[in-house]
Write a structure and sequence with these properties.
Helices cover 28% and strands 28% of the residues. It is of the alpha/beta class. The chain binds S-adenosyl-L-homocysteine.
């Protein structure tokens, strides 16, 4: 039994109450210890349903948001998934735990290096690189799923191009205050879009994102 096991059980119960039904998502979030991705003073809040600071004005996403986005992405074992915004590495590890082949991009190099250390320590094989993820990662495209964990002013075209036929892009789009989650499915030449209101992410900064330093 680990130190936070009871808290994690409670977090899963809350996610179910809030409408998360995908057992694969719930199982992965039960197995992965979120407190390992949370730093110092916030560790005791690791299993509260809230985003927490990870440095550089960035946050590890709220558990409900991770669960909801992953459920919408609905990846299968062996799916090739690209994540934009590695941050703490938590979302990437959830996907890897579900059996996905994960590729992840982070623009803050020290966050990336810390996440990489954690991937290694926990034994996950996740491909990662530093840089601007708004242009995607062409080398390994197309992807069965692309998940963007920062708020975009609009859908970056390169990400749509790098989506496989039948693939899904999950991305928060809106202003800097609040965003809607778009779930876009590529069907041949057409895109099917579903939108869910009321999310709050840190900004996606880059060539096809917001301007920033
Ligand atoms: N998925 C992360 C959430 C981190 S918050 C987790 O589970 O912890 C979003 C992250 O996106 C931040 O770390 C931020 O630095 C990063 N980011 C913002 N714009 C980016 C861009 N254009 N390319 C890559 N990463 C970006």
């Amino acid at each position: 039994m680990g130190r936070f096991d009871d808290e994690r059980v409670e977090m899963i119960a809350l996610l179910k109450e809030r409408g998360i039904t995908d057992e694969r998502v719930l199982q992965a979030m039960m197995k992965v210890e979120r407190h390992l991705f949370v730093t110092g003073p916030f560790i005791n809040k690791s299993y509260e349903d809230t985003a927490l600071p990870i440095g550089h004005s960035q946050t590890i996403s709220q558990p409900y948001t991770v669960a909801f986005m992953t459920q919408e992405l609905s990846p299968k074992r062996g799916s090739k998934v690209l994540e934009i915004g590695t941050g703490s590495g938590y979302q990437a590890v959830i996907l890897a735990e579900m059996g996905c082949r994960v590729f992840t991009i982070e623009r803050h190099l020290d966050l990336l290096l810390e996440a990489r250390r954690l991937f290694e320590r926990l034994g996950y094989r996740i491909a990662s690189r530093g840089g601007d993820g708004t242009v995607g990662w062409t080398e390994f495209a197309p992807y069965d799923g692309i998940i963007v964990t920062a708020a975009a002013p609009d859908v970056p075209e390169p990400l749509l191009q790098q989506l496989a036929d039948g693939g899904k892009l999950v991305i928060p789009v809106g202003d800097l205050e609040t965003q809607n989650l778009r779930v876009i499915t590529k069907m041949g030449d057409t895109l099917e879009t579903k939108e869910v209101r009321g999310f709050k992410f840190v900004p996606l900064i880059g060539k096809k994102g917001w301007n920033g330093k």
